[in-house]
Amino acid sequence: MISGGMPIPGHSCSCVPRFRRLPGQAGFSPHCWLAVLSMALCALAVHGRAEANDAEDRISLATVNANYRVALGEIARRYQREHPDTSVDITVIGQGFETWIRTRFAAGGDLIPDIFNVNYVSGYVEQGRFVFLDRYLDEINPYTGTKWRDCLDAAMLDRYMWHQRIYQIPIDFIDIALFYNADIFDELDLDIPATWEEFLGHCQAIEDAGIIPVAMPGDFDSFWAGTVGWLFRMFGDAYLRGFVPLIMSRPGDWDYESERNASYHYDPANPYSDLRVVTNKERLFNAILSGRLDAGGKEFHALHRQLKAFSDYWQPGFMGTNQESAIQLFYRQRAAMCILTSSHVTGIIRDFKRLAPEDRFRYGVFWFPPITSDPLVQGPFRGVGGAGMTLAVTQKDDAAHERRVVDFLMYLTSPEAGQLLVDMTLAAEQPLTGPFVVSGVELPADLSERFAPFEGHGYEKINFRGLADEQESVADWITICQEYFGGRLSLDDYLNEYHRQMVEAIGRLQERLNVDLDPTTEDVPEKRPIHKRLWNPFENGLLAVLVILACFGLLGAYHCRRTRGATRRRTVTAYVLLLPTFLLLGTFSYFPALSGLYHAFTRWEEGHAAVFNGLDNLRKLASDMAVWRGAGNMGILLAASVFKATVVPFVAAELLQALVRRRLRYWFRTAFLVPMVVPGMVGILIWRFIYDPSMGMLNQGLEAVGLGRWTSSWLGEPSLALPAIIFMGFPWIGALGLLIYMAGLMNIPQSVHEAYRLESDSTLRRIFSIDIPLVRGQTRLLVILAFIGSLQDFQGILIMTGGGPGLATTVPALRMYYEAFRFSNFGYGSAIGFALFVVILAITLFNMKVLKAGESPG
Length: 858
Fold this sequence. Notes:
Blueprint: H1 30-54, E1 57-63, H2 69-82, E2 86-92, H3 97-107, E3 115-117, H4 134-137, H5 154-159, E4 169-170, E5 173-174, E6 176-181, H6 182-187, H7 196-208, E7 212-215, H8 220-225, H9 227-240, H10 244-247, H11 258-261, H12 281-290, H13 298-311, H14 323-331, E8 335-341, H15 343-353, E9 363-366, E10 386-387, E11 390-393, H16 399-412, H17 415-427, H18 445-451, H19 471-485, H20 491-513, H21 541-561, H22 565-599, E12 602-603, E13 611-612, H23 616-622, H24 625-658, H25 662-673, H26 680-691, H27 697-704, H28 718-727, H29 735-746, H30 750-757, H31 763-774, H32 776-792, H33 795-800, H34 812-822, H35 826-853
Parallel strand pairs: 1-2, 1-3, 7-8
Antiparallel strand pairs: 3-11, 4-11, 5-10, 6-8, 6-9, 12-13
Helix pairs in contact: 2-17, 9-13, 19-20, 21-22, 22-35, 23-35, 24-29, 24-32, 32-35, 34-35
């Protein structure tokens, strides 16, 4: 192969025609044409190999269950040995799986995995994105010799049915329970409580002993899909499942099934009595709109009062605590109890092996005892969990491939593969999510005993934490719920606002799901094409890049025509060398930016093609209170960022310049620049630990010096959360700003300073009269960078607070992220990005003009 277009010594290129180059004319040598031909042949060979590989069927499985990584890899290898014509790719996304899978569906095509954890998304089944597996369940599983249905848990399959169709296959089970320190319970002479009232009495006794009764996380993620969210679901089911007859399907409804609904009656002694009852979403919506199911009703009041009373026994400042910090409170025996999932049964065993013997303690698990003193309670607490790893098959309209994917799923749910999951996961010292629901899988006896408190409690039927799993309504609920728990909203105001949010969510769902609110008619979601319009360069990336390259080529041709001789040759060479860079810029910078600006004027939701909707998104933005509240926070952060980017680095640079000894200056300069090598994410996580209200360095330091009254929940109090975000990174000596200012100060001629000393010896006057004016250009650059960075940055807020508590730390860029990647409103997210672009451009031009105007002409 000839590489780089270089000729081979002694080689004659007689097969390549020779072209005569006119004087001043740019062109390729014959050797270059030969190199191009060689590369083309290589490309064809690679393409041929790719086509050969395409003959092999590829199955892709994506999961969030990183604990099963080793076992899943081995299962894939064993399946491939039995099926040499099939390869299985396992992708594990331990963090951010929800965002990852939604972006894959938005991209479409082969980027969507064949099998994935379906419990991390909602709305896809209505769009017809999954394969219904009913017809496969009654087939013989070739790896067991019995019906596939017999390998699976019938109750689980019933729970996850959609319109009486099955598309989810549960692998294991997960739920929550109360983990307790048995040593503390014995010391205080406490038994496992039989009632909720007795449980609260235990909490009071533990608090009186100076110990935190329950360690509880309360950050955004805990409300979104963690401990607090689980509690709301559990309490909601206990108080509200009496509304099941109101929203269940009735004769005449399109989804009514007499064998499921006709004989239903609530039986508190049977936690599974309503498992198979079919509920009608439109009856739920009508009940809310008519007021028959009112968030201001007595049941809602009672369950929220009960939860608020329970929160009095959580650690102070719980809303500034994440899950890891809450677990550490329990591990360090500062809290007597902690609400954890079944996965922590094996997780604690693994963690305790790493602790010194004197730091370990005996622990136990018990289920939530029933509330007996409130007549509004409909029955004992039921489970909010269910399938831990529940898998669905993506609809790709390829019958042969679908059959092979289902075959692999049958193998995965066979006793052989299920036992392999258990054994290899335990051997790798990874936690089991919970009991397995695959038939024939056996757990060690001690684990079966530990998992027992999680089983046999049934499953929640209805709850209100947001509406119908509508992501945006859940986020809206978190905002007001944190305000209520923080004492900034009364119960009545909170419930009234929540009812308004549910009514608003119904309007969104009506439009999104094409719901007519008539329970007798089946509503089919609007079928909008999801394929890209190839003629539209804002959707077709290849076409967009070709257009950008064409513009680049026209510009190059124009410049080449205006030059002559050697200058033309240099111009052609320059454009040829710039072409690869411009190609990368066009692909990864210009196209995404232009596409985002275009989609700001479209209705673009997950699973649908973008539809032009004019200024609708901008009108919605104008009335979005979260954006406006975020704009106020952004203004404060902007002012702080400018101060941190200019004043502090400038003062540090002046102090370094004032040091007489060069070696001392060198060491201080090195010390200030070392933080550049530390990833920004590490710094954010360190500051999160510093602010932890229970175990953070800040509160512990204040207590150590006798200032315990100043301790606080720095990220859990709205009045302190934004200042805490601003204070991150103290003392704010940014390495970039320091380098820029030092270069500017060192570039000031020494003669200028010597001339100034003839007039004054005042250092401050010199700084304000000489140094600051002469580094005005550097200041302008840093101000612009600070503005742009502050407007675009949200990762620190996302990790530290998630925008909470309430809306205390939200910013427009964070709202844009949530809308696009959590709520799948890509069009509206693009509109927020477009607004930020306009603001950044305007502020940048204004800063440049103002600072430029302030410079002296000389």
